[in-house]
Amino acid sequence: MPEKRKYAPKASAASSNSHIGQSTGVVIAKGIENLPGLVRAVEGVGIWFDAALDKLLELFVAALYLVVLEIGTHSAWKIVRIVDACKYTSNFSASRQCSRSSFVLRRRVLPSSSFVISMRIDVVCPIPHVITSCLETGIVGRARERGLVQIALHNLHDYADNRFGHIDDEPYGGGAGMVIRCEPVFACIERLLAERRYDEVIYLTADGEQFTQAIANKLSLAESLILLAGRYKGVDQRIRDALVTRELSIGDYVLSGGELAAAVVIDAVVRLLPGAMSDAESALDDSFQDGLLAAPVYTRPAVFRGMEVPAVLRSGDHDAVRRWRLEQALQRTRSRRPDLLSRTDTGKAP
Prior knowledge:
Blueprint: H1 19-33, H2 35-44, H3 49-85, H4 92-109, E1 119-125, H5 132-136, H6 138-145, E2 149-155, E3 168-169, E4 179-180, H7 182-195, E5 200-210, H8 213-219, E6 224-229, H9 237-242, E7 246-249, H10 259-270, E8 303-304, E9 307-308, H11 318-336, H12 338-341
Parallel strand pairs: 1-2, 1-6, 5-6, 5-7
Antiparallel strand pairs: 3-4, 8-9
């Protein structure tokens, strides 16, 4: 199979900015990209982790002020998104620090009310109306209203090369089911590629790479994405060879079509965009952000039908609450998803 082709991201629009400012932005961005490695180095020499990393992040925040002045807010937001991508690290403490730094950068340096950077997602599929309601409500719907993301749906039937609007045909070699033909998919995606550059052309398929929170974090850095959703027995392999840069699966099961899988990916990515959630810090405590399942949550009343909220959550002791949540997250992960612990160093509580 030919090597997957990676479409280059958009070039920076701030061509008139100073060379010094651009160099500063690159250095800082590279530093934040390598933050998990720096974390491990700090721990390796026995330096007190929290104090050292906090100081490092303070330097990044201070330097980002200069970046905003020199290369503009658009590039600064890219750096903030790089910090977001670092949330999913091999160390629980590192993950929390990266998450906290991202929140600090947004609040101190880049208030969301000052400007809007919009992400573009194009969904190419046979039956767009299957996911219309998913994209018009909730966090995704509000993000679209605020101009944080543009989502365009493209019906493959509009690109059929026959008067009947058929987009599928029988598979070569025989067998049950139908296969989506090359002509409508190439016609649609090539038209989109002629209009703008895309970071990824993603095909949703049951035999693709498993979609994870880490991938969602990284995709939230993108400026433009194409999501290709198939149906029937899938798409002609030549589409995957020539156009697709990444293939994702949302689980080990089969759906009637890829539209719902595309909606899952969109929801997971869009909720991470700056300004998409009213409480930006809420996403930092989600399951999988630090390699663990989330701890149990409670709300009022304190006692309901004899079931009482744990006393520690009502104690007002924030350190005790943090320790309790970590212990509960570790216990729940060991019980339900022990495979997650094998991927991280979080198996031991601090």
